[in-house]
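Contributing new records

If you add data, match the layout below exactly. Sequence lines come first and carry their own label; structure lines follow with theirs. Keep one chain per record. Anything else will be rejected by the validation script.
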Amino acid sequence: MINKLVIVGVGLIGGSLAMALRQAGAVKEIVGVGRSWENLETALQLGIIDRIETSLAGAARDADVIVLAVPVAAMQPAMQELAPHLSVGTIVTDAGSTKRDVIAYARKHLPNHITHFVPGHPIAGAEKSGAAAAFAGLFQGRNVVVTPLPENDAEAVSKISSMWQTCGAIVNSMPALQHDEIFAAVSHLPHLLSFALVEDIAFRANAKELFSYAAGGFRDFTRIAGSHPEMWRDICLANRDVLIREIDTYHSQLDRLRRMLEQNDGKALEEVFGHARTARAEWLEGKQDS
């Protein structure tokens, strides 16, 4: 049971977490903090939060758990503001898509509270954002990664893991660098490619004509280009060293395909396409089994 939960950033992730915990009867009071008063009012009207706090100082008082569900670039100022107001036993966690940068911010701004800062990342999302997009089932059967620190209090890590499990999530643990390398490949790079393709088409002289003929394939490939630009700007910059390596690897694959086209090598193209199709089918089958 969490007596007082503070959600900093009551959007899709923060709002859905609040709703799931409330639905499970695992929280007594939920306090919302954020930069958009309109969004907080929406969260209050929808019953996602019990009350609004205008400052982190007021919200932090006697909190059991504080969840930083803000864009990763906003983590640092949030920690700076929180630091003087944290109670000894308050657990702070985050929902950021990158971990090394967030951990560095915590070490800098929460050095006296590092035992109770537990980094986390729920692997769930959608193109829509804000409190109105939140729903209690968002984390059902979805992965959540925690990247505990050597200094972490074991009970604090256990409580954050239990919090996510209560929401129906599958909790995994790994080092921060491993996390950032994995998600650069399977999340950050796909978003970058999707944004890049739409940008490329949009700035062509015949963009209107091209878009008029775009159908299911283009829609499926570019779905994630509808994601929040500010959030993805911050993620890409925060993980830029690993992401640049992934871009280079992908560029090498494109060069390989380009050579096949230049050489009119249909057999090689078919082998690549067949292998990719099989790998994707096995991935989907594995997800269904799990």
